[in-house]
Every structure is written in C-alpha cells, then in structure tokens.
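pls design
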C-alpha cells in the first residue's frame, strides 16, 4: 500500500491499464520472450564456444600453419624455424593404421601422431584427461583420444592392437587425452564424427619412426607464427622448402579441417542468432503497435483531460511508452531465463560433436543486457513510437470528442448478385475486412510469419534427410572403403576381390594436388574413378548421377566459384607426389554437390596424367552381409591397409545425431510458431471485440445466437488465416533461401527441399494455435453482459 502511495498518479493509471488488458499484454510478452530467449540462447552459446575455443588454443599452443610431406630429414628443422615470421616449428611423424579393438568385429582406423617421450610438445599439446604421460623407452605405450575410449569403454591399463607396417602390435593405453587439432574428429569425406571407428593415438616418436622407416626424418610440420607475421609469406617459403621432399602444400589454421568446421559453426550461430530473433521481436513490435493504437483511441478523452490538467506532451508520451516498456520488459526477463535454459541444452548438443576438455555454459552479463535492451528498443520502442506520437499530437479540444467513425458505404460484397449467395454473417465479416484493410493486412502478415517460421524449420529437417539419402544411398553404394598405406599396383584389386564375401570391388586413385587458375588456388585430392562408377558415384544435390568424361576435370561448383573458372576453361594441376608433374587440364564440367571441395577425373585419364599404370590408392567393396566378420578379420591382418571406412557405421552415427536434433528442432518450431500465431490472433480478436462489443450485444438482443456472433467476430480471422497460409509458405521458403546463403561455405552446401507434407504440418500447427486463441476469445463472448454494454454511452 505504501508503495502505491509513493507512485505518481500516471504510474498508478499505467498499472491499472496494463492489468485491464492483461490477456493481450501476456500474449505480447510471450512473443517478446520467445525472441529474447532465442537471442540469448544463440549468442550465449556463441560466447561460450568462442571463449572456450580461444582459451583452449592458447593453453595448448595450437599451431597457425600445418604442412604434410612424404619424408624430410630432421636437419631441415633449423631451416624451417629460420623462416622469417616463424616463432616455433615442430616436426612430427603421422601415419594412419588399422586398429583391432576388443569387442569390435569391424576394423577401426587409428591416426598415430608422434610426441616426445620426455617433456611435452611445443605445439598442439595433448590435454591429459586420465592416466599419465608416456614413459621414455616404452614404445608400446600410447595416449588415446578420449571420445574413442569412451565409445569402447577403454581406460588406462587396457590394450588394443594395431597393424603397423605389416606387423600386429599390442599398444598399451596409459592415458586419455584431447587435442586442439581434433576438436572435430572427422576423416575426409565423412559427414559427422564416428567415435567408434576413428581414433587418435599419440605415441613416442622413436616407436612410430622406426616402424615406418622415419628414423631421423619427419612427414608433418606444425608452425606457430610471430605476432603480425604474414601466414601467406610463411606458407610460400615453407612450400618451397618442402617441395623437394614431397611437400603436399602448407595450409593456414583457417583451412585446418577441425578449426574450419567449428569456425564456420560459430559464424553461422552468430548470424542465425540475430536473424531469427529479429523476426520475433518485429512481430512483437507489430502487436504492441496494434494494441497500443486501439488503447490510445479508447483513451482519447483521458489524454485530453491530462493535457487540460497541465501534463506536457512529453510526459504523456513517456507514460504510454512505459506501458510498452513494461510489457516488453516482462517478456525480456522471462526470455532471458528461458534462453539460459535453452542455451545450456544447446551446449549439451555441442558437447556431443565438439570435444573440449571443459565446455561450460556461460551467460555473460553483456549478452543478457544486450538481448534485453534489444527487445526493449525493437519491440517496445518501434511498436509504441508511432502510436504514441499520433495520440499525443491531437489537440485537447479535438481529443475530447470521440474518434470520427469510418466512412461507410456499400461494399463490393453487398451487391445484389453476391448478397443473395452469402448470408448476413458472412457479409458482415467481408464488410469489416474491406473497411479496415490495413488492420487486416497486418494480421495476415503476423499469421504468415508464424506459418513461415514453422515451415522454415521443417525445410531444414528435410535438408538433413536429403543429405543422408543422397550421400548414403545414391552416392555411396559400397559397404566398405579400403585405403592403402601407399599407392599400390592394380594387382591389389584382385586380392580384395578374393576376400570372403566381396561381391564387387571398384578401384579408386587419389592424388594430392594444387589446382590453380590465375592467382587463385586450392590444395585438395583429385579423385580418379571409373567413368560410370557402380559403387561410389558422383551425385548432385538433386540426386542426379554424373558420368565422368574420358578427359578433363569435373569439379564441385563451389571450387569453380573459388577459382573463378567456367566450364571449358583450363586450370593448372600441380601433382604433389611422385615426379610432381604440372599439367594444364580442361574443366569438363561442374557438379553441384553438398560436401567440401572436390575434383574428379576418369581413372584412366588420371593415370595418363601421372604417367603410371593401374595404380590404386584404395578401393570400394560391396560385401555379402553374412560374410562381414570373416572379411573384417582378413582386412585387419593386411599390411597394405591404412584404414577402413564403413558406410553402415557412418550412417548410424548420422541418423543418431540427426534424430536427436530433429526432436528438439521440431519441438522448438511448434512452440515458437504457436506462440506467434496465438499472440497475433488473440490480440486481433480482442481489439475487434473491444471495438464491436455494442454491435455484437445488439445482435444478441435481436436474436442472433452465440455461435452466429462468434462467427461474425472470429470469421474474419479464420479467413485471414486461410489467406495467410500460402503467404507464410513463401515467407518460410524465402527465409530458408537466405539461411542457405548464410550457411554456404567450403565445408558444405545445403539444398532446400519442398514437399506438400511440410506445408501441411506448418498449416495444421498454426491453425491449431488460431483455434485455441479463438476459443479463448469466445469464452468472453459467452459471458457478454448485454445490459451493461447497451447502457454504455457512445
């Protein structure tokens, strides 16, 4: 009570006004809360990931430049370290091997990375999560990547087996670790990490060097740059230094696969976290404007009285702006609370994909304050400004009179030809829509936004389904992909065909190359395969299979854009192995694919380019399902094999993660679209009810039933909803196109897929929210005080 006494007269009036419209205020606050919750959840996740990433990179000394090569003597280390701009240079031995893991019938792939037995790596240091560091002289001790260990229940003290240079060796796990190099642990060509079949193993340098004839040599370099050093200049000098030793081309940190993936995710998270919440806050601004405009129209006499009592226009304007700020502020507080919960849940999903030692959710005061203020400025400021300005500029004498009624005339729907075909209620609905076109348009747009938001979410669920179908069904028809330690002769293909259960085997030749067009270039593997491949086919986003021409290069459309080359043009292909030939090759065509950058040639043409016989880098196998165990046992014992990729395992990982994300995305879209639809329709219906209460009461006295007057009130909203459905579908499609452009990168491209089921789900969800809001308003019609309403003065 004492608090109310201390409040000014205008503030007490403000609280009474907001309480009197509590239903509409709650609906608007809910839309604001959704926008703020999304803004908080996205930006807080961006902030948490960015802070964690920067701290992790700094603490573990993540390198700035990476390079691989065939073999160079360790004496070259001093020359690398002496390159201007290089602060630290560290060489390593890195090899992929086949793993035999207890309890896993199929073979896994392990990447052996050398580390010093005493001391720690100067760059890319392993973060030890369990166990201890390896001891000098114990060549069978390893540190194992924690995700792989967790997938198989392995711990320090356990053992696994690896085929190293043709010998099956037991490796004893002494510790589990994580590395800034493998936050996103994925092999080339895969969609998502497969922790069951791909492991990182850190081993004493002498152990891996002796196994692969690398004593006194190295095949991998990591470089840390000095502050303000040019990575391009360092890479150019490093490439020239490594070229005689089979250098495969140095890359900056931004091109390293793990960093590039998470950096793309962060950029998309930041963009998406601004785009979608802005739409919700825009809808909230529209609702506030619509509601406040009607409230100020009703309070015209009160505004005139306030002016007569000496209140200035600025005081009256601030009073009504506070009306909007109070609603938006309540929605912002609720949105920050909900957004923090959603953000923590989103970070749990990131924890399943990206591997940090500690990834803690953190909602900073800056993010919370910025989100709340954005909501206040966008929804309250924009929503209230025009309505308040119009109301306070009315002269007191003019404001004392009721607002002049609209100019009435016979509408197009009341012409005799149409009037005979439609009832009285329908004519009233159509007449009201015709006489308030701007209000009807605003309501239609609001409902369309709700439809579009849901449709947009369903579109992206279809995207993931399409990617799975195209990648795992149309493109990859093999069961197993075998990769060799070094390129082998064509006789290896006959050995593979003789393995148990192998129905078909198809050769693959991959060669590292730099493709250049003018000043632009990219390092990648050129893949050679049969022109009409049966097992691993080149497929567009639409599912069309591409047949390779007898000559020429077929590359991804994204690579063509980066190199600025058109079909029929020529590019320089510098092969980075063997004699390192440089050839000018015609671009035979582009393929609009989904994953990464790719370049393909018919395998015979690639052999001619390399001036070699039928050399293979690997092979794709089609296998009988009842023979897989016998096949896996034979592959594990093959010394030529460096790694195996299993389509079934990759598909299982993809579907598991996709199903979980689908459930969350669907739930969010249903709730958010429903809130928008409910808020728009409820506010429009309440405004219409407040304007037409006397008219509806009169109709009740004249004998109209509750159902008939409900049809008059809600029928126009039902008609607007029907009209808004196609508009909303188009809006959702446009929003999807915009987001696809935002997501478009060298890592992946997303197609948009429309199905009638998508549109149906979006329509049904929004219709359900509209029906719910209509029933809420109808309850107020059921309790309409006819006598009280008809006693009110005009």
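designed seq:
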């Amino acid at each position: 009570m004492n608090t109310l006494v201390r409040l000014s007269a205008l503030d007490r009036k403000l609280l009474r006004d907001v309480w009197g419209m509590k239903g509409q205020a709650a609906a608007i606050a809910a839309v604001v809360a959704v926008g703020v919750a999304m803004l908080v959840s996205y930006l807080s996740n961006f902030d948490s990931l960015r802070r964690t990433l920067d701290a992790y990179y700094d603490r573990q000394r993540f390198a700035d430049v990476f390079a691989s090569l065939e073999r160079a003597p360790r004496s070259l280390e001093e020359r690398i370290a002496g390159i201007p701009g290089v602060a630290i240079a560290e060489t390593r031995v890195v090899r992929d091997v086949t793993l035999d893991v207890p309890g896993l019938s199929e073979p896994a792939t392990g990447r052996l990375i050398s580390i010093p037995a005493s001391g720690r790596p100067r760059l890319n240091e392993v973060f030890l999560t369990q166990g201890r560091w390896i001891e000098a002289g114990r060549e069978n001790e390893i540190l194992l990547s924690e995700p792989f260990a967790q997938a198989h229940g392995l711990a320090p003290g356990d053992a696994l087996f690896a085929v190293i240079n043709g010998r099956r060796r037991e490796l004893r796990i002494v510790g589990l670790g994580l590395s800034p190099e493998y936050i996103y642990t994925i092999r080339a060509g895969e969609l998502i990490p497969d922790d069951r079949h791909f492991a990182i193993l850190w081993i004493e340098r002498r152990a891996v060097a002796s196994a692969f004839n690398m004593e006194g040599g190295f095949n991998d370099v990591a470089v840390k740059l000095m502050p303000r050093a040019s990575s391009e200049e360092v890479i150019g000098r490093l490439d020239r230094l490594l070229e005689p030793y089979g250098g495969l081309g140095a890359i900056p940190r931004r091109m390293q696969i793990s960093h590039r993936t998470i950096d793309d995710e962060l950029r998309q998270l930041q963009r998406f976290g601004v785009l979608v919440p802005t739409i919700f806050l825009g809808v909230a601004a529209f609702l506030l404007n619509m509601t406040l405009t009607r409230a100020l129209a009703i309070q015209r006499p009160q505004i005139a009285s306030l002016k007569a009592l000496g209140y200035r226009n600025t005081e009256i304007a601030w009073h009504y702006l506070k009306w909007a700020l109070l609603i938006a502020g309540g929605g912002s507080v609720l949105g920050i609370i909900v957004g923090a919960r959603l953000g923590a849940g989103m970070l749990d999903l990131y924890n399943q994909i990206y591997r940090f030692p500690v990834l803690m959710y953190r909602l900073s005061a800056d993010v919370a304050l910025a989100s709340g203020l954005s909501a206040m400025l966008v929804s309250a400021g924009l929503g209230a400004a025009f309505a308040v300005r119009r109301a306070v500029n009315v002269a007191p004498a003019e404001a004392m009179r009721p607002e002049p009624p609209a100019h009435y005339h016979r509408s197009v729907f009341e012409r005799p030809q149409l009037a005979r075909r439609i009832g009285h209620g329908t004519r009233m609905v159509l007449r009201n829509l015709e006489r308030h076109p701007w209000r009807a348009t605003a309501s239609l747009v609001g409902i369309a936004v709700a439809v579009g938001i849901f449709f947009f979410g369903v579109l992206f669920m279809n995207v993931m389904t399409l990617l799975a179908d195209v990648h795992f069904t149309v493109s990859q028809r093999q069961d197993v992909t075998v990769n060799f330690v070094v390129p082998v002769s064509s006789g290896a293909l006959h050995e593979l065909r003789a393995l148990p259960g192998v129905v078909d085997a198809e050769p693959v030749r991959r060669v590292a190359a730099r493709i250049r067009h003018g000043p632009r270039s990219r390092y990648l593997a050129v893949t050679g395969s049969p022109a009409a491949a049966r097992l691993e086919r080149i497929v567009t986003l639409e599912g069309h299979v591409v047949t390779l021409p007898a000559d020429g290069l077929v590359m991804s459309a994204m690579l063509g854009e980066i190199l600025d080359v058109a079909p029929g043009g020529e590019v320089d292909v510098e092969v980075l192995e063997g004699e390192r030939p440089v050839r000018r090759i015609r671009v035979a065509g582009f393929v609009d694919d989904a994953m990464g950058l790719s370049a393909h040639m018919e395998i015979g043409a690639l052999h001619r380019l390399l001036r070699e016989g039928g050399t293979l880098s690997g092979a794709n196998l089609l296998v009988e399902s009842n023979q897989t165990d016998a096949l896996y046992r034979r592959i594990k014992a093959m010394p030529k094999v460096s790694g195996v990729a299993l389509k079934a395992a990759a598909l299982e990982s993809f579907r598991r993660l996709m199903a979980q994300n689908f459930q969350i995305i669907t739930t969010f879209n249903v709730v958010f679209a429903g809130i928008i639809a409910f808020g728009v329709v409820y506010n429009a219906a309440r405004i219409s009810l407040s304007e037409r209460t006397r008219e509806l009461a009169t109709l009740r006295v004249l004998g109209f039933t509750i159902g008939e007057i409900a049809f008059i009130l809600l029928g126009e909203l039902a008609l607007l909803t029907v009209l808004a459905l196609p508009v909303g579908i188009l809006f959702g499609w446009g929003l999807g196109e915009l987001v696809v452009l935002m997501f478009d990168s060298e890592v992946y491209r997303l197609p948009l897929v429309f199905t009638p089921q998508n549109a149906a789900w979006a329509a049904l969800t929004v219709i359900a929210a509209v029906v719910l809001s209509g029933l809420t308003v109808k309850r107020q019609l059921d309790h309409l005080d006819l006598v009280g309403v008809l006693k009110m003065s005009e």
